[in-house]
Every structure is written in C-alpha cells, then in structure tokens.
Specification:
- The chain is of the alpha+beta class and about 110 residues long.
- The protein has one domain: Orthogonal Bundle (DNA Binding (I), subunit A), CATH 1.10.30.
- It is built from 5 helices and 3 strands.
- It has a 3-stranded mixed β-sheet.
- Helix 1 crosses helix 2.
- The longest helix has 21 residues.
- It starts with a helix and ends with a helix.
- The mean pLDDT is about 90.
- It binds zinc ion.
Length: about 110
Amino acid sequence: MQKSRSLMKLLGYATYDKVRRRLADDNGWLCSYCGGGVTIGFTAGFRLATIDHKIPVSRGGTHKRYNLACACKSCNEAKGSMTVEEFLRSQLANVANAADVYLEGCPSIAARS
Ligand SMILES: [Zn+2]
C-alpha cells in the first residue's frame, strides 16, 4: 500500500483516480492478475481497482505507464514488493500446493501412485 500512497501523493487524488480509471478501463475493468471484476467505490461482487507497479518502486520501478497495471486491492496487497513474474510464480506454487493437498486426500488418485 505504501507505493499506492506515494503515487497518490505524487499525483494528487484527482489525477491518481483518473489514471486508475484509465488503467481499469483499458483492462476491461478486470484485475490484471486474477481476472476478477474491479470497480471504483463499492459494487457488490467487485473488488476495488488499484494501480499496481509491475516492477515495484522499491525495486527500481517507475511511475511510467508501461510499468503500471490495473490490479484489485487483494492482488495488489498480496503482490507487495514482488515483480509480476515473482507474484505469478508464487500464485502458481499456491495452486500446485493446493492441488497436492487435494489429491493426497483423493482415494482414487492415491491408489494410483
Ligand atoms: Zn486480482
């Protein structure tokens, strides 16, 4: 969240909100990472749209358009100071772990191994 606050401070809220809306609109009002619907304000079933830095500012990323992505608040917070690649790899690892846990408890799969 610190990076969002610093960008908001840098741009001022009105410009920050304009950039956020533009990114969300360009991305079909979907999160770049989970594909969930995003919104500005509150809409049931949608998550708050935020501005994510693909390469975090803390790791040398810039506020330039090519480094910005529309992300839901949950993904942005989970991504933290990870790069896009690191974040997506962590998500894949979580899915793989969840699959392992699920399959371990599945008798038909366990019987085959
Ligand atoms: Zn998301």
